[in-house]
């Protein structure tokens, strides 16, 4: 019997780690003929309470969410302290890092996978799971506070 761990949830975006977010965002705009949204910055640890491998981290990232139908492409340029984003960039360079799904309870739905990084983003919480061995990439759980 097949076990569907994340099957009841919809993928909301695909996250790409990039070295140069401006260049990559402009390239997406040109190649897909779309207006590229503004580039933002994650909040500092004092606001997010971010942890990386269970320890507080000053990791931050520049972000750009590009709407592409039902799924967004999220461009992430890591800045600051240790993070899953920086690890990926140092090890692999630019590329697909994760798929993100919205869940009701990010802690309960981590399903026993090790939590690599987590934090708050104002209206919700994110959790990156170490699903590399079984899926070949990270899964990000996004919990929106109600």
Question: Secondary-structure blueprint of this entry?
Answer:
Blueprint: E1 11-17, H1 21-32, E2 40-41, H2 45-48, E3 51-52, E4 55-56, E5 59-68, E6 71-80, H3 84-92, E7 95-103, E8 115-120, E9 124-129, H4 132-135, E10 138-144
Parallel strand pairs: 1-6, 7-10
Antiparallel strand pairs: 1-7, 2-5, 3-4, 3-8, 5-6, 8-9, 9-10
Report what the structure shows.
The protein has 146 residues and is α+β, with helices and mostly antiparallel strands. It has a single domain (11-144), classed as 2,3-Dihydroxybiphenyl 1,2-Dioxygenase, domain 1 (Roll), CATH 3.10.180.10. The chain has four helices and ten strands. It has helices at residues 21-32, 45-48, 84-92, 132-135; strands at 11-17, 40-41, 51-52, 55-56, 59-68, 71-80, 95-103, 115-120, 124-129, 138-144. A ten-stranded mixed sheet has the order 2-5-6-1-7-10-9-8-3-4. The longest helix is centred in the N-terminal third of the chain and has 12 residues, at 21-32. The protein is globular, with a radius of gyration of 15 Å. 31% of the residues are buried. The mean pLDDT is 89.
What's the β-strand tally? Answer: 10
Low-confidence stretches: none
CATH H level, superfamily name: 2,3-Dihydroxybiphenyl 1,2-Dioxygenase, domain 1
CATH architecture label name: Roll
What is the domain total for the residues? 1
CATH topology name, in short, is 2,3-Dihydroxybiphenyl 1,2-Dioxygenase, domain 1
Determine the mean pLDDT: 89
């Amino acid at each position: 019997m097949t076990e569907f761990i994340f099957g009841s949830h919809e993928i909301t975006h695909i996250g790409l780690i990039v070295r140069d977010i401006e260049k990559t965002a402009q390239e997406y705009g040109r190649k897909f003929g779309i207006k590229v949204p503004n580039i933002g910055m994650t909040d500092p640890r004092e606001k997010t309470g971010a942890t990386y491998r269970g320890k507080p981290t000053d990791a931050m990232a520049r972000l750009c969410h590009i709407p592409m139908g039902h799924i967004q492409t999220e461009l992430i340029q890591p800045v600051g302290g240790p993070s899953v984003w920086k690890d990926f960039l140092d090890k692999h360079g630019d590329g697909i890092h994760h798929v993100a799904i919205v869940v009701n309870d990010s802690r309960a739905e981590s399903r026993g996978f090790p939590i690599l990084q987590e934090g708050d983003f104002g209206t919700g919480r994110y959790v990156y799971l170490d699903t590399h061995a079984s899926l070949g990439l990270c899964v990000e759980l996004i919990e929106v506070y109600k």
